[in-house]
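Suppose a colleague, Dr. K., hands you the sequence of a protein chain of 244 amino acids and asks what its three-dimensional shape might be. Before reaching for any lab equipment, you can write down a predicted structure in token form. Begin with the sequence itself:
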Amino acid sequence: MGFSSAIAKAAVSVAEKLTSTKAVIVIDGSSAEQIPVQFNPSEYRIVDRSNFSQKERRNNNEPVVNYSGSPLSSLSVKLYFDSDEPVSVGSVADAAKNLISGKSKEEQDITKTINKITALTRIDGDNHKPPGCVFVWGSLMFSGYAESVSVSYTMFDNKGKPLRAVVDLTMRGFNDPPEQRKSPFMSPDRTKARIMTEDNSIWNIAENEYGDVREWRRIADANNIDDPLSIPIGKVLKVPSIND
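The predicted structure, expressed as tokens, is then:
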């Protein structure tokens, strides 16, 4: 099993078994890259709302109110980064090398991870849109796009290198109610996301989600897939509602 497929399987395992201890951001793509979250958030905010329009009525105190749909759900979370603490296993190894070589902790770079998060708001090559991503932590699996990333650098070394930072991340996701969004086992009348793994196929996903392998075309159309045999490992697929 390749490294990229191992990452994809790990992300699926976190979402389905709900055993995650550290939050991660899984990026849609051939490598299913994970961005590690250094410290688990103390809170996150999910907003679901309905839009209504109203029209005043002549000779009547009560306006006419019409439901005009629901905007996409949003996730807001604050993430903290500190150069004194390792971000990942790799950075632990780097810290050990720095200690051996005599480099100080102040020379560790937190901007590398932060830049990966800010890059989620930028157009992804030939896709002509930012990459999709999944924020996974505990029972939460929020799929969507990074709408905004705001970074506040709060401490620097004597050369101006950032040592601490706060990242405010806002994602725009699918319009599922909280109980559906948190569970990867959603009914077929709800939109959801699935990560392509090495031992999976679009036909298996159709069978598992809709109970009918012939519904693979519904998934292919929703993701602009022309060749179902060339879907890259790690790609996050939108699985539309059976009612769409």
